[in-house]
Design goal:
15 helices, Rossmann fold, 38 strands, alpha+beta, eight-stranded mixed β-sheet, 5 domains, Immunoglobulin-like, disordered N terminus
Length: 746
C-alpha cells in the first residue's frame, strides 16, 4: 500500500486529499506470482547465456521479466484511491418557515384550553434563538435561515431552500426543517430529500400546527367594487368560511371611513362556506376605506381573520346614454322618462318616426342625426336599440359597424329592445349580428302576442344577478318578480347563443331547446350586451309607479357602464379585468386614448407605470389593438396585496391619467388551514432523519451533536482493468515480439 497526502479543490471548496495505491492480494496470488517471476527469470537467464550473452537478447529478456512482473501485479487488482476530507467545520442548516400560514393560531399546549392557542410562528420562536444552538455551535457551524417570507409575495416552496442548503453550505452534516408543511409552490420537496439521502445528510423535522382545522370563522373575501355613486346603493358581496360544528346566526357589520355603519344578519352554515351581501348607500363623494367584520364566536380559536378592508372611490355620476327608436311605443316613452329623471344619466334620443318630416323630437333630449364621427359616438356609455333596423331613413351598415366597435373596443354597453315591427332581423345582416345574445326565429318576425298576460321567471343566475335585483333579499326579490304585472308580447326567440347568460325565461312558453330566454346578457370584446325580449317592462309601474321600472333600467345602465368608467380623464380611459384581482392573478389592461382633437389615437407609445404597496415599480407597455378606436391593451400580474397606483401616459399626446386598483390578500397562503406534518415526516423518513415535537427543539441540537464523522468522499481508479494499462501491456508485448524477430530468435 502506497499513501500520498495532499490538498486539492473539490467543487470549489478546500479539501484535504490523500492518495493511495491499494492491492487486493491473497496469499495464493503472492505465492503464484513469486513462482511465476522466478521461473520466467530463470528461463531469461538461460536464453541470454545460450545466445552468447548478447546485449540485445539481454534487453529482450529483461522486457519479458518486466511483462511478467506487470501481469503478477495486475493479478492482485491494483487500485488508485483518492480520499477527500473537507477542511471546513461541519455545518447544520436550520430552515424556519416564515410564511403567512404560520400566523394560524392553532398550537395548543397539553393540558391548556384551546382558547389559549398560540400562533405557529410563536411556537417556533425558539428555533430562531441563539441559545438553542449554543452548545452545537462549539463544534459545528449553525446557519439559521427563514424561508417563504410573506413579504416575498409568493407561497411556500420547501424544495428550493433544501436544494440551496445542499449547494451553498460547505461540509453540510444535517438539516433542521421547522414548518407547518403547507407547501404550495415549487417541486415536491421529497425530490430534494433524495439528494440529501445520497449525500448522507439527515433531515430533522419539527412540524408545527394542528392536523385538523380548529373551530373558526374566516372572512374569505370582500368583493367591493372599484367605485360607487353618491346616493346610489352599493352591493358588497362577501364570503365566510366556517369550521364550527354547528350553524351560527350572527350580525356582520360594514363600516366606512366616513362613519357610515350597516349591519346584516347572516346564518353561517357549519363546516362550509356562506356567501351573502350587504347593501350600503354612500352619502358623499371621496375615497374611502370600507371594512367588514364578523363577530367572534365563543367557540372560535382564531379571531385574527374575521375582518377585511378594501378601498372604494365614491363619485358624482354622469353617464351618457343614447336611445334609438322608430315608433314612440309605450316602452320607449317610459324608458326615456326613467333615464331623463335619473340625476346620474344624461340621455339623448334619436327617433326615426316614419310620420315625421325630420329626424328628432320635441325637446332638448332629442338629437337630429346619428353621431357623425367617432369622437361624438365614443362619448356614449350605453346605447339602446329599439325597433329599428337597416332601412332608408334609419341605420346604415356603417353605423352598425361603428356601434359594434363602440362595444368591442371602448367598453360601452348595447341593449337590444325589439318590437312588433321586427326590424331587428335586418340588423342580423350587419356586423351587429355577432353581438346578439340570442337566436331569433325568422319565420315569426312579428313576435308573439297574447291577450292574457305572460310572466318572467328568473333563472338561478338571474336570482343572483345585480341586474334583476328589485328587492334587498333573494327571497323578497323572487317574490317581486313573481308578482310583477305581465307582458302581452315577446320577441321570436329560439334559444340563447353559446356564451350568453340567461337571467330570465318565459314562465310558460318553451320549444325544443327549452324555456324561451327573454332576458339575456353577454360580454363582447371590452363591453356588454343585453337583450330584452319584451316591450312590457313599463307595465311594472302598475300600483307602485316608478319603484321597479326605474330601478331596473338604472341598474342596467350602471352595470353596462361600470367598467368603462373605472378611471377616465379628458382624453384617456383605463379599465381592467378583474376589477379587484387576487394575488398572482393576471389583469387584462385596456385603455382608450384620444387625440387632442377628440379623434381616437391610431398608433402611439402608451404605457402604464404600476407601483406596488412596497414601492416596486413595473412599466407595462400597451399595444395598439383597435387602431380605429384608439384602443391599447396589455397584461400585468399582481404579486403583492394592497393598493397599487397606476399612472397611464401617452407620449404622443402628453396626456396622463392616475388611478389605483386593489389586490386582495395572498390566496396562496391563507391563515387557518390545517398543518401538513405528514410532508415533514416523509422528508425525515427518506433522509434517515427523525421527527421532533415543536416543544422539544433542544433535543434536536443534542442529537445533531452526536452525529458520527461522515465518511470521506472516495474516488477509486481500478488500474487492473484500466484501458491505458491494457494499451501499455499490449504495446510492450508488440515491442517484445518485434525485437525477437529482429535478433533472429523467431
Amino acid at each position: 500500500m502506497l499513501a500520498q497526502p495532499g490538498q486539492a479543490r473539490a467543487g470549489g471548496r478546500g479539501m484535504n486529499v490523500s492518495r493511495t495505491l491499494v492491492f487486493l492480494w491473497t496469499p495464493w496470488t503472492i505465492v503464484l506470482g513469486v513462482i511465476a517471476i522466478a521461473v520466467v527469470s530463470g528461463f531469461a537467464v538461460a536464453t541470454w547465456l545460450r545466445c552468447g550473452r548478447s546485449r540485445s537478447v539481454a534487453c529482450l529478456e529483461a522486457l519479458r521479466v518486466l511483462l511478467t512482473i506487470a501481469a503478477v501485479l495486475l493479478l492482485n487488482q491494483p487500485e488508485w484511491v483518492e480520499e477527500y476530507r473537507p477542511e471546513e467545520r461541519p455545518a447544520i442548516a436550520v430552515l424556519v418557515d416564515d410564511s403567512a400560514s404560520m400566523d394560524t393560531r392553532d398550537v395548543v399546549s397539553a393540558g391548556k384550553p384551546s382558547a389559549s392557542a398560540a400562533t405557529r410562528r410563536e411556537a417556533v420562536a425558539a428555533a430562531r434563538q441563539d441559545n438553542t444552538w449554543a452548545e452545537l455551535r462549539k463544534r459545528m457551524n449553525v446557519v439559521v435561515q427563514s424561508i417563504a417570507s410573506p413579504s416575498s409575495g409568493h407561497g411556500t416552496d420547501l424544495a428550493s431552500p433544501l436544494g440551496q442548503a445542499i449547494d451553498r453550505t460547505p461540509n453540510l452534516r444535517g438539516v433542521v426543517l421547522v414548518s407547518d408543511g403547507d407547501w404550495n409552490e415549487g417541486t415536491p420537496p421529497v425530490q430534494t430529500a433524495a439528494r440529501l439521502r445520497l449525500k448522507g445528510v439527515p433531515l430533522m423535522a419539527v412540524p408545527v400546527g394542528s392536523r385538523v382545522q380548529l373551530p373558526n370563522l374566516e372572512l374569505l373575501s370582500l368583493d367591493l367594487p372599484t367605485f360607487g355613486v353618491a346616493g346610489k346603493s352599493v352591493r358588497v358581496p362577501f364570503t365566510i368560511a366556517s369550521s364550527l360544528p354547528r350553524d351560527l346566526t350572527t350580525i356582520v357589520t360594514l363600516k366606512s371611513s366616513d362613519g357610515d355603519e350597516v349591519t346584516r344578519e347572516v346564518r353561517i352554515a357549519a363546516m362550509g362556506r356562506t356567501s351573502d351581501a350587504v347593501v350600503w348607500r354612500p352619502r358623499t363623494t371621496g375615497d374611502f376605506t370600507v371594512s367588514l367584520e364578523v363577530p367572534r364566536s365563543s367557540e372560535e380559536t382564531i379571531p385574527d381573520d374575521n375582518k377585511l378592508s378594501a378601498p372604494i372611490s365614491i363619485r358624482e355620476e354622469k353617464l351618457r346614454v343614447l336611445v334609438i327608436e322608430s315608433y314612440p311605443r309605450w316602452e320607449y316613452r317610459y324608458l326615456r322618462n326613467a333615464l331623463s329623471r335619473d340625476p346620474g344619466v344624461d340621455v339623448s334620443c334619436l327617433l326615426f318616426h316614419p310620420g315625421l318630416s325630420k329626424v328628432g323630437g320635441g325637446n332638448k333630449d332629442y338629437i337630429k342625426q346619428f353621431p357623425g364621427g367617432l369622437d361624438e359616438l365614443s362619448k356614449y356609455d350605453v346605447v339602446f336599440l329599439g325597433d329599428v333596423g337597416l332601412e332608408d331613413g334609419q341605420l346604415t351598415a356603417e353605423q352598425c359597424r361603428l356601434l359594434k366597435g363602440l362595444v368591442e373596443h371602448q367598453a360601452s354597453g348595447l341593449v337590444f329592445m325589439p318590437g312588433v315591427q321586427g326590424r331587428e332581423f335586418s340588423l342580423l345582416e350587419t356586423e351587429l349580428a355577432d353581438l346578439m345574445p340570442v337566436a331569433l326565429d325568422p319565420t315569426q318576425p312579428g313576435g308573439w302576442g297574447s291577450r292574457t298576460p305572460n310572466h318572467f321567471e328568473l333563472t338561478e343566475l338571474g336570482r343572483r344577478s345585480l341586474l334583476t335585483k328589485l328587492a334587498d333579499t333573494q327571497d323578497d326579490n323572487t317574490e317581486v318578480w313573481e308578482n310583477l304585472p305581465g307582458f302581452q308580447w315577446y320577441a321570436p326567440v329560439l334559444r340563447a347563443k353559446p356564451g350568453a347568460d340567461v337571467l330570465a325565461v318565459h314562465k310558460d312558453a318553451s320549444n325544443e331547446d327549452g324555456r324561451i330566454p327573454l332576458l339575456a346578457t353577454r360580454t363582447f370584446g371590452a363591453g356588454k350586451v343585453l337583450f330584452m325580449g319584451t316591450d312590457g317592462a313599463w307595465r311594472w309601474r302598475k300600483g307602485v309607479e316608478d319603484k321597479y321600472h326605474y330601478r331596473f333600467w338604472g341598474q342596467v345602465v350602471r352595470w353596462m357602464a361600470y367598467q368603462r368608467n373605472m378611471a377616465k380623464g379628458e382624453s384617456m380611459r383605463l379599465y381592467y379585468t378583474p376589477d379587484q384581482p387576487k394575488m398572482n392573478q393576471t389583469l387584462a389592461l385596456r385603455a382608450n386614448v384620444m387625440e387632442r382633437s377628440g379623434e381616437p389615437l391610431h398608433r402611439g407609445d402608451v404605457s402604464a407605470r404600476i407601483t406596488t404597496p412596497t414601492g416596486k415599480t413595473e412599466l407595462v407597455h400597451l399595444q395598439a389593438t383597435g387602431e380605429e378606436w384608439g384602443e391599447f391593451s396589455g397584461q400585468y400580474t399582481a404579486n403583492e396585496a394592497g393598493s397599487c397606483k397606476v399612472v397611464l401616459v401617452c407620449k404622443e399626446t402628453g396626456a396622463r391619467l392616475e388611478t389605483s386598483f386593489f389586490v386582495q390578500g395572498a390566496a396562496a397562503e391563507p391563515v387557518g388551514r390545517p398543518a401538513r406534518p405528514e410532508v415533514l415526516e416523509e422528508l425525515a423518513r427518506v433522509t434517515n432523519g427523525k421527527v421532533f415535537d415543536v416543544d422539544k427543539i433542544d433535543q434536536v441540537a443534542r442529537l445533531l451533536s452526536e452525529l458520527p464523522e461522515p465518511s470521506p468522499l472516495t474516488r477509486r481508479i481500478p488500474l487492473w482493468c484500466h484501458p491505458a494499462v491494457a494499451a501499455a501491456i499490449i504495446t510492450l508485448l508488440g515491442v517484445f515480439w518485434v525485437g525477437r524477430k529482429v535478433v533472429g530468435l523467431v
